[in-house]
């Protein structure tokens, strides 16, 4: 019998990546990347005329289909594998990334008369223009004593589904009326491949307030948010939710032809980029927190009980692995944090020096920053350049850098920004543990985890925990491929459960990061100061950040 393979497609914020994986051992034989043609639209629509407001972040669904049509044939060609030996595939996506579609599943932005309407496009996960709607949702839920609110740390984010849907109902009621369904992009792409609508339990649970035991919140709650949301689940969403690890359907002949695969190839229920990564590092038990580190960081952790943790992004039964309660937390700005600094604040002399040495600017700054002792710069930062996801759940918070003098150097600021993200991580860990959810080990995956040893050592020192790295540098895509193998099943050469697949296909590296005792003690002092700033600016004692944002918005309107 010939060897069997599965494909995983990981949809990120700027590109989509496909990997071809050996089902027998989890080895990646080939991978291909397609940058999105339209990237992230945060200033103008593709017409170059329609201007977007502050905090908008849109995408074009055509880009997602192009990923399938280009990357999958590419990995087959590179590997030399026959399409007959590909038994299954699955995808993962950023979330909550949502779009309105018509009764045929066609995105509204594909309609000629709606191409200049921003609300007809995909609202990316980091679309924060629905914050007013999120604030009202939280106020109404709190006033009514809705039980679901505590499952999400007491506050719903503007990044989630219902604030974005409320924004459409209020600002573009014609779009709301015209849409047949409002879908997560991960479910929409899967539907395009199979012809079957199968909404996954992960996005429904973490981003759309759905519970395995209680379902969605009651209809009168949605009606209280906006009259148009009366019967919103029946009219715009779907009551049928499918668990992870199931088969969503099979490739249609049309999509199989466009992707270079066989019709009938098994397609797994869609997933989220962070959550799908957990089994890819071999984690199948509670108490191990995985940091998926990229432009932002998402934290995934499994527990045996449902605990209420302030500021968590959600606790969902079977939301990550069957039989466990899956917890999510995260930080809205990590890789974006450092890129912002490099693009806007690093002098030309540093750029030239890096080029002379044949190094990238991030590597150059990291090498200079690694020579600094803990606390040597006298700097302290808050990592809120894109708001705070956990534990404050407040996108209206902004960044802070304290301690600068005329002697402050770029590498000192660079290190302080890195340390700020580590302090934010420690705040998340402590909040979980203070509320009865133990964390034994830290695991990490994503480009930053592999490229920046200094950063990972800082995290180990600040959090005072060992950190293990995924053996694969494409962890989410590998996780998606694993679920593709599960969708195919053992009879086709795959696996009957994600636990079986994780034992064979999920791995971590042999080497790991261990806390350095003297650094641990030094960082305790800095963290204490970080916590003071965190609570002072983040818990209502001084709302200057929000006042400044309002002044900015008013000035732009004028």
UniProtKB/TrEMBL annotation:
Q: Does the keyword Transcription regulation apply?
A: no
Keywords per UniProt: Arabinose catabolism, ATP-binding, Carbohydrate metabolism, Kinase, Nucleotide-binding, Transferase
Q: Boundaries of each Carbohydrate kinase FGGY C-terminal domain copy?
A: 290-488
Which residues are listed as membrane-spanning? Answer: none
GO MF term set = ribulokinase activity
| HAMAP family in the cross-refs | Ribulokinase
Q: Which domain of life is it from?
A: Bacteria
What PANTHER family does the entry give? FGGY CARBOHYDRATE KINASE DOMAIN-CONTAINING PROTEIN (PTHR43435:SF4), RIBULOKINASE (PTHR43435)
Pfam families cross-referenced by the UniProt entry: FGGY_C, FGGY_N
Q: Which family does it belong to?
A: Belongs to the ribulokinase family.
- Spell out the protein name for this chain: Ribulokinase
Q: Which gene encodes it?
A: araB
Catalysed reaction, written as an equation = D-ribulose + ATP = D-ribulose 5-phosphate + ADP + H(+); L-ribulose + ATP = L-ribulose 5-phosphate + ADP + H(+)
